[in-house]
Design brief:
Elements (H helix, E strand, L loop, with lengths): L36 E2 L7 E3 L3 H17 L2 E3 L9 E10 L2 E14 L9 H5 L7 E7 L7 E2 L7 E2 L5 E13 L6 H6 L5 H24 L1 E2 L11 H14 L4 H7 L4 H21 L8 H13 L3 H8 L1 H18 L3 E3 L4
Parallel strand pairs: 2-11
Antiparallel strand pairs: 1-10, 3-9, 4-5, 4-9, 6-9, 7-8
Helix pairs in contact: 1-4, 4-10, 7-10, 8-9, 8-10
């Protein structure tokens, strides 16, 4: 495989659309969770605003948002880490070749997407500037054809190429959460943004302690009624995208599938146990409504949403949100002394 895959469990706190009436007959762990989990006492969880865990979670949440809503510059020069929208035409011996031309290509500087030194030579170029970039294709590149007739063979391996590149625009992550960023991210103000990030950071800390302090007594023998099929499919696709197979992923992480399955199901068991302990419920039709919402937001069919995520995982998402909202109200939060 090209790269290692970290074994992380992420609880997605999605905005759920709850409609309908009556209590939902849940699809996961229908028989309850008492025989699976000794849940910790939530009132015994303390989160300190001055703790490293809280600060790291808050910083991580903020940085995720900063990188997710980059600013588009109207002036300036390309820097490492920027996404530069470029037009380019590549030529070898003065002849444009197939595969060496594009318009409006978004290139992340430092991603090593293009031939060595190509991206580095863009650093310092200004928006609107056009320049020639010279690179050498390494050994192993397949031959191509001339762009005009696509009939003449053009050798790429070990050949010097000149790319005429124009910088159309530059996108760059914000370095701080200012008012401009807050508006771009859909918040009314920086204060509103920070309030939500602090809420997320608190829930991240509570979630970590819930998992750490609770004990798993056993794992369900069957996958029916658990979100595991989604997790396995997710990591299978991730492994495939990195040039391997699911078995390669397990080997890299030195795990059997049984151990992998157990590791993935622990958090969901604990969250459902907390769901039961706090006597929470989902409205009838909640899963179906969430499927409709996700289909609309992502411009896909409801069938595609179910295929990609599975009903069990969607319910798990909704349960996670309900649990973390309620659990955060039960713990002790110690504000910063400063």
């Amino acid at each position: 495989m090209k790269k290692g895959i970290a074994l992380l469990i992420v609880v997605f706190l999605l905005t759920a659309v709850m409609t309908g009436c009556g209590k939902l007959e849940r699809e996961n762990y229908k028989e309850g969770t008492k025989k699976y989990v000794d849940l910790c006492d939530l009132s015994g969880i303390t989160v300190e605003e001055d703790s490293d865990d809280y600060k790291q979670n808050l910083s991580g949440r903020i940085n995720d948002y900063l990188s997710g809503y980059p600013q588009t510059l109207t002036e300036g020069t390309v820097a490492d880490g920027d996404v530069a929208k470029i037009d380019y035409v590549g030529k070898i011996g003065g002849v444009a070749f197939t595969g060496g031309t594009a318009q409006g290509y978004d290139l992340t500087i430092g991603s090593s997407t293009f031939v060595d030194d190509f991206e580095q030579q863009l650093i310092g170029m200004s928006i609107g500037q056009t320049a020639d970039i010279t690179v050498t294709f390494p050994d192993g590149y397949s031959d191509t054809t001339d762009l005009e007739t696509q009939s003449k063979a053009i050798k790429l391996a070990n050949q010097d190429a000149v790319f005429t590149v124009t910088i159309r625009s530059i996108s760059r992550p914000y370095t701080e959460a200012n008012e401009e960023f807050a508006k771009a991210a859909g918040f009314d103000s920086v204060e509103a943004f920070m309030t939500e990030m602090k809420d997320y950071a608190l829930k991240d800390c509570v979630y970590s302690q819930m998992v750490e302090k609770s004990t798993i007594k056993k794992i369900p023998a069957e996958d029916v009624g658990t979100p595991y099929p989604y997790f396995k499919n997710y990591y299978t696709q991730y492994a495939t995208a990195n040039g391997g197979k699911f078995e390669d992923f397990l080997t890299y992480n030195k795990m059997t599938e049984s151990a992998f399955r157990e590791e993935l199901l622990k958090p969901s068991l604990i969250l459902y146990a907390c769901f039961d302990r706090l006597n929470l419920s989902l409205d009838a039709g909640a899963v179906d409504e969430q499927i409709k919402t996700l289909a609309t937001e992502n411009s896909v069919t409801e069938e595609q949403v179910v295929t990609d995520l599975t009903r069990n995982y969607i319910e798990f998402q909704l349960v996670s949100e309900k649990v973390m909202d309620a659990a955060a109200e039960k713990v002790t939060f110690v504000p910063s002394a400063t």
